[in-house]
Amino acid sequence: MxxxxxxxxSAAEAAPATTGPDVPPDHLAIDPRxxxxxxxxxxxxxxxxxxxxxxxxxxxxCISEGWVRVQAGKTMDRKGRPLTIKLNxxxxxxxxxxxxxxxVAKAG
Length: 108
Known about the structure:
Layout (H helix, E strand, L loop, with lengths): L1 H17 L8 E3 L9 H6 L1 E5 L2 E3 L2 E5 L4 E10 L5 E7 L2 E5 L9 E2 L2
Antiparallel strand pairs: 1-4, 2-3, 2-7, 4-5, 5-6, 7-8
């Protein structure tokens, strides 16, 4: 019983550090057709650091899986949408409207 009581407590303590109103979601896309699109979150402005460098050309990211999607040059698919490539590496995200001391969401 002691083990059951400690597991929920530690999970509850870990949850606010990775999710919440001041931390961007784990998976986010700028394409309105994607199920990971969230217009309210995007309006706040999300900063992305990929492999230690701040990037402004990210189309989609997933922090827990460690990847981002970026546009592959000016290449378009047959429906006129930009082609993207998936890059693997450490991803960090934060809300830009919170300033310099914003909490950063990163894989842990």
